[in-house]
Amino acid sequence: MEATEIKNKLSILERAFANDYFIVSDDLKILSIDDSLSRLLFREGADNLLLTPDLLSEDQTSQLLEEGSLTLLREGRVYELLSFPSEEYLLIKVTDKSHESRLARELETARDINSEWRNLFDKYGGDTVWITDARGNTLVVDEKIAMNLGVPKEDFVGRNIIDLEREGFFNPSVGRLVLNSRKIEVALQQTRNGKLFLCVGTPVFHRNGSLSKIVIISKDYSSHISLSEFIADSGCESIAMDELDPVAEDFITANSAMLDCLRLIKLAAKIDVTVLLSGETGVGKSRLARIIHNLSGRAGKPFIEINCGSISPSLIESELFGYESGAFTGASKEGKPGLIEAARGGTVFLDEISELGLSQQVKLLEIMQDRQLTRIGSTRKTKVDVRFIVASNKNLEELVDLGYFRKDLFYRINVMPVHIPPLRQRQSDIPLLTDYFIKQNNKKYKNEKTVTPPAMNALLHYSWPGNIRELEHVIERAHIIAPGRFIGIEDLPSGISGSGRPEKEDGMVVVNKLGSLQDVVEQAEKELISLAMEKYPTSREIAEALGSNPSTISRRMEKYGLKRKGQKDKI
């Protein structure tokens, strides 16, 4: 071949393959190489150099020619070489794999760090991995995650998880939760296309205690896994429960704020101190009060729960403090000990303490200070050995300022305050509690039901003003009225079922309940044609967009009663 012809061919190849390739003659002389690629591989340029021995050993060259590929380590970087031979020259493609090699090492580290989680997810059928740095910037993202989000995984590398959450790729970001809490977080995450994933985020720390990485493992929720079983297997509950002893094993949470409450409760339980539980109605104050009692040295003694708001104001003094014979009209001849006295040696839980009148507040303060009680109609003081736990769903400090609650009593009961967050701030607990109540009802009604992903999505997006108590009642109601083994979005109250329906993307049909295949197909066809009618003015354009023909589209429009704007009914 003439030198000019060779030169022309090389010029064409150079333009075609840019700087990812270099060209070698059949005698292994480097004929053409881009300057930047030359500097990467040879540092000082590749003019008049040979492939072997200037770049590769004989064994490496043999491997490249025989197998068509070779991994090359050069100046601390990793390159992949692919050969494309012809009769006249050898075309070699060079790909810098250093970044992928680093990510592979990071992923391997994640596998070691989170091996228990990975084994658990494998047990339940597959998993995906996402790794970020200490600022939430993506280092590694699994191919499956990218597929679920409909974006090439290369587009995620380097992106910050908080930005991705803000842009609507998923909600909530379990990585953001870990960044905020520096603790293991569990969340049910919804992607922008409506899929649900159970996500576990684990912080990884340097030896000096600073955050190094966040490892996130996700499991597709649509397989109807048992969340309570999963959490029990995972040990998420044991984050709190191992510290709280077996007596509290049925308190379900994976929320960091709630776990902090439980740790504080454990400390308070061991000291005979008054605990003030605050929080909205239905958050579980009564359950936590019983946990404190069970963890205390008074566990074998009585636990007396008194709802101050449910007892008539005219009776509350006699119920709390007791009375002597003849103390008032209708009093028992023998007299009667009050509930506080009946709890001797144990714990008195005063729920809704804000409902006590000022006169009862005075007497309660005396008992707490002096550990002595005077029954109604008596002048004799009786010693009482009880521990008080009090609770309120109202702001007691505001009531003090308004004059409805005694300041001295507030200071007396506010020794160990514990605030319990509402359920709407504990979104990761909603699926866990739902699954717990489902299992309770399955046992109660002797059947096997589960919640569908659309229904779970609705539960996650509802505000739950009645908190856990409301969730419990909603699940039992849905359990009773659901006709089959699946509790769907149509089985939830209307105020809840409307809160979780995913918005439909263009061309997406959302099916929320079972029906005949023909009905579902026809509904999808109707919605698809309706969508096309909004964009295209003629049947021909609609047909082209949907890959059909105009006559078919016209028949379908007539069948479904679909009309264009301005079109009148046939007479």
UniProtKB/TrEMBL annotation:
Gene3D superfamilies: 1.10.8.60, Homeodomain-like, P-loop containing nucleotide triphosphate hydrolases, PAS domain. Residues 251-480 form the Sigma-54 factor interaction domain. This is HTH-type transcriptional regulatory protein TyrR. Residues 562-571 have a biased composition (Basic residues). Keywords: Aromatic hydrocarbons catabolism, ATP-binding, Nucleotide-binding, Transcription, Transcription regulation. The lineage of its organism: Bacteria, Bacillati, Bacillota, Clostridia, Eubacteriales. Residues 546-571 are annotated as: Disordered. GO terms for molecular function: ATP binding; DNA binding. GO terms for biological process: regulation of DNA-templated transcription. It comes from Candidatus Allocopromorpha excrementigallinarum. Residues 127-162 form the PAS domain. Transmembrane segments: none annotated. InterPro entries: AAA+_ATPase (IPR003593), AAA_lid_NorR (IPR058031), Homeodomain-like_sf (IPR009057), HTH_TyrR (IPR030828), P-loop_NTPase (IPR027417), PAS (IPR000014), PAS-like_dom_sf (IPR035965), Sigma_54_int (IPR002078).
